[in-house]
Amino acid sequence: MREIQFKGLNPFAGSPKEHPMRRTMFRPTPAISEFRSRRRSFQFHAFWLLISLLAVVGAGQGRAQSVSPETRPLRVLVVTGGHSHDASFYQLFEDQPDIRAVVEPHPTAFTKNLIRDFDVIALYDMVQESQVPEVQRTKLKAFAEAGKGLLIVHHALVSYQEWEWYWKELVGGRYLLENRDGLTKSAYEHDFAMTVTPSSKHPVTEGMQPFRIVDETYEQMQILPSVQVLLRTDAKGSNDPVAWVSPYTPSRVLVLQLGHDRQAHENHQYRTVFRRALLWAGGRL
């Protein structure tokens, strides 16, 4: 606050009775008294109006400085364990400022507050029910039921063979480790060169052309007819669908059968599909 200075005689010095300007200072006319009263009332209201405006501006600045879920990096939990893999897999998350990935292998993968801390879970593990405590599997299910996104990658299709919620409801298919229910167990083949073709209109495949990739194929998988197939191949030794959207309705779930090793991880088209799949699962695409 600026200090107020008075030049000459100080009207506030001494007592009113002794002040030489007593007659002019302390006997105001009715008009002057009314004016002063209105002025004090105006100053009082103006003061509180200013305080209110400053509070509103401050709150607005606070909201502007906070990071909304739509502008912060996509928070991805990458779950591994149960199957060896090339370190090149982690390159899929590098040099992307709009994606922040945290790698957490089993047995501690699902011990955190998943719903609070992450937007998407990318499963690149291969585990069975006996290897993951029920309390952790319950957290994974709660994450999906909360509307959070999931990306199921390659050998994660082999996980939880007996957990029907996982392979049937969430994923929409599985790699069969043994003959069951009249179906022959699945098979795989390494280093298989194939052509992959987009098969339906979707943000993940928009504008994409058929591409070549060398990868591990899965054959004789159990895939539900209710899935939305995004990528297909007509290569022998592989199931026709190699990427699909799960029919699971509470959240966005995308399955990518491709992605075994460095040959896939460093394929430009595969990297494009993988990035788009993450963004789509997280509601950013």
Q: Can you summarize this structure?
A:
By secondary structure, the protein is α/β, with parallel strands linked by helices. The chain folds into 2 domains: 22-65; 74-281, Rossmann fold. 29% of the residues lie in helices and 23% in strands.
Number of domains: 2
CATH superfamily of the largest domain: Class I glutamine amidotransferase (GATase) domain
CATH classification class of the largest domain: Alpha Beta
| Alpha plus pi helix count | 7
Described by the principal axes of the CA atoms, the overall outline is globular
Strand order of the largest sheet: 2-1-3-4-11-10-9-6-7
- Tell me the CATH topology of the largest domain: Rossmann fold
Calculate the mean pLDDT score and round it: 84
**Strand portion:** 15-25%
Biggest sheet statistics? 9 strands, mixed
Query: Span between N and C termini?
Result: 52 Å
Describe this structure in words.
With 285 residues, this protein is of the alpha/beta class. 29% of the residues lie in helices and 23% in strands. The strands form two sheets. A nine-stranded mixed sheet has the order 2-1-3-4-11-10-9-6-7, with helices on one face. Strand 9 (228-233) and strand 10 (241-245) form a beta hairpin. The radius of gyration is 34 Å and the shape is globular. Mean pLDDT is 84; it is low at 1-29 and 62-66.
Which features characterize this protein?
9-stranded mixed beta sheet, Rossmann fold, disordered N terminus, 2 domains, 285 residues, 7 helices, alpha/beta, two-stranded antiparallel sheet, single chain
